[in-house]
Specification:
- The structure is a single chain.
- With 561 residues, the protein is of the alpha+beta class.
- It is globular and about 70 Å long.
- It starts with a helix and ends with a helix.
- The protein folds into four domains: 70 residues, Double Stranded RNA Binding Domain, CATH 3.30.160.20; 52 residues, 2-Layer Sandwich (Double Stranded RNA Binding Domain), CATH 3.30.160; 94 residues, Phosphorylase Kinase, domain 1; 182 residues, Transferase(Phosphotransferase), domain 1 (Orthogonal Bundle).
- Pfam families: dsrm, Pkinase.
- GO terms for molecular function: ATP binding; eukaryotic translation initiation factor 2alpha kinase activity; RNA binding.
Length: 561
């Protein structure tokens, strides 16, 4: 029985514990270890509130509360099922090409999904010339009274351990974890030597500076970027690791996009600079701008660096298909905002052009919207963090950057808007560590009573954003908490982030972080509160940061006299 099937039965279930019963059945059929962790018990005796968290194979899901332990357990199970349901939708989309070419068998739903992960990881290792090492171990489970296997899979800098009833199942689960670790490394990898390009952020007005890495443009072939599904890790919009159909490797007659190497440091205006006709058929675009360079491409459209012929200044022009509500929403939000820490909007126009979502399209009959914005040439905050891995941390600089982000968020909220997709990939660096918030494609008005469930990047979404349509500015505050942690505690590798992320979301921080940042830890506990009403306003955060700065100045003055 699939998680989707479980969810369908849950919707009409009259009994309060039906969710936990079906989650138990789902895990039992797949040999997954299910644990319910008692988080807290609060309130007076006549009005107790129990909080419980689901943990499956060591993976922690959002906490849930209830007036009794049974109700809290069932609420936690419901949250887990919703998340698993969305993930399985993405797994099915990934495995659909395989299922068409392979005969059906009696393997479970989860096994077929894991099978594709192993195949893709193996292909990626071959293309990149990396050694793939697999180690197995076996034991007898005293609880289930059944033999079990574990697999340690290592490929380059990635390593994961998977558990299962047999070697094959353990190997597939380890491959899935490696796949997800690759997502967090913010690299879009396609199993073809002809197409590989790091992902630089969803808005795309930032220019990446990834030294030593030669890249080339590719057409986005992964899961849809804004389709409401969860999982860019995308709708859910987390940084997405995308793969093409493995048949491309087997069929030499399949037409591939020709390789166009870029300079190792991605220097714009040299290797990528072309005439306007190369990128657009729109007359206004070509008559208004020259020195046109493609700086980002993905499910959201294409972003170009351009020079205005009239004033000589450089801008970012984002071209998107004019067929989504989010397109109009982004323009309206940008046009309304004017703040030092918000990417500046200049103008927009509508025209007919190549399909922004189809790199092979030669037709210029697609209705498109062009958004002219400020160009942020220093890249994204995500790039900034990556460049500081394995380097000495700078607490003062990290707090300064966080203060700038919070200032931008305070302004957004003052305009009765919610960003809904705050993350390092949507925050841009300008000049010397100056910060700008961008990508308002998911921004929504506080006046909207019914908001969309599950919109945003799952990795940065608040608990209420997963399942409820009744939420407010607090969802941005939760994301701010996660960004603050990333700024202060820059892990040496992306896989290290993956290992601790679930605990960070529930305020379980590494020991060295607690020791080094005791005051910041208290702030984080408020920002990452499971209850939205317990999170502070952006203005309160700025007040706290100001007090923190003043304390340091006073302390410094005391020690110097």
């Amino acid at each position: 029985m699939s998680v989707s099937g479980c969810a369908g039965r849950m919707a009409n279930a009259p009994e309060p514990r039906i969710h936990s019963a079906h989650l138990h059945e789902y895990c039992q059929k797949r040999g997954l270890k299910l644990v319910y962790r008692d988080v807290s018990k609060t309130g007076p005796d006549h009005n107790l509130q129990f909080t419980i968290q689901v943990i499956i194979e060591g993976r922690e899901f959002p906490e849930a509360s209830g007036s009794s332990k049974k109700k809290a357990k069932d609420a936690a199970a419901k949250l887990a099922v919703k998340i698993l349901e969305r993930e399985n939708q993405i797994e099915r989309s990934l495995t659909s090409p395989v299922s068409k070419s392979q005969p059906s068998n009696s393997t479970s739903e989860s096994s077929s999904a894991y099978h594709n992960y192993m195949g893709l990881v193996n292909q990626w290792a071959q293309v990149e010339g990396l050694h793939l090492n697999i180690d197995f171990s076996h034991k007898y489970d005293e609880v289930s009274k059944l033999p079990s296997s574990s697999c340690t899979l290592t490929i380059g800098k990635y390593q994961a351990i998977g558990h299962g009833k047999n070697k094959q199942e353990a190997k597939q689960r380890a491959a899935k974890v490696v796949y997800e670790q690759m997502k967090l490394d913010k690299a879009s990898v396609v199993p073809s030597r002809l197409s590989r390009l790091p992902q630089f952020g969803q808005l795309g007005v930032g220019v990446s500076v990834e030294s030593g890495r030669s890249t080339s443009e590719f057409s986005d072939s992964g899961p849809p970027h804004r389709n409401g599904l969860s999982g860019d890790t995308s709708e859910t919009r987390t940084e997405e690791l995308t793969f093409t159909d493995s048949s491309l490797l087997k069929n030499p007659n399949v037409q591939r996009k020709p390789k166009r190497p870029l300079a190792a440091n991605f220097v714009l205006g040299k290797s990528e600079n072309k005439s306007g006709n190369r990128f657009s058929a729109d007359k206004h675009f070509n008559s208004t701008y020259d020195d046109i360079s493609l700086i980002n491409s993905g499910g959201f459209g294409k972003v170009f660096k351009v020079r205005c012929i009239l004033d000589g200044h450089h801008y970012a022009v984002k071209r998107v298909k004019f067929d989504e509500e989010s397109v109009v929403r982004e323009v309206k939000a940008l046009a309304k905002l004017s703040h030092v820490h918000i990417v500046r909007y200049y103008s927009c126009w509508e025209g007919l052009d190549f399909d922004p979502e189809n790199s092979n399209s030669n037709s210029s009959s697609t209705r498109c919207l062009y958004i002219v914005m400020e160009l942020c040439e220093k890249g994204t905050l995500s790039n900034w963090i990556d460049q500081r891995r394995n380097k000495e941390s700078d607490k003062a600089l990290s707090l300064n950057i966080f203060q700038q982000i919070t200032s931008g968020v305070e302004y957004i909220h003052s305009q009765k808007l919610i960003h809904r997709d705050l993350k390092p990939a949507n925050i841009f660096v300008v000049g010397e560590n100056n910060i700008k918030i961008g990508d308002f494609g998911l921004a929504t008005s506080l006046k909207t009573t019914e908001k969309t469930i599950g919109k945003g990047t799952e990795r940065y979404m608040s608990p209420e954003q997963y399942l409820s349509s009744a939420y407010g500015t607090e969802v941005d505050i939760f994301a701010l908490g996660l960004i603050l942690f990333e700024l202060l505690h820059i892990c040496s590798t992306a896989s290290e982030v993956y290992k601790i992320w679930g605990k960070v979301r529930v305020c379980e921080f590494p020991a060295e972080f607690v020791q080094r940042y005791p005051k910041e830890k208290k702030l984080l506990q408020k920002l990452l509160s499971q209850k939205p009403e317990d999170r502070p306003k952006a203005s309160d955060i700025l007040t706290f940061l100001k007090q923190l700065t003043e304390e340091k100045v006073i302390t410094y003055a005391h020690y110097t006299h």
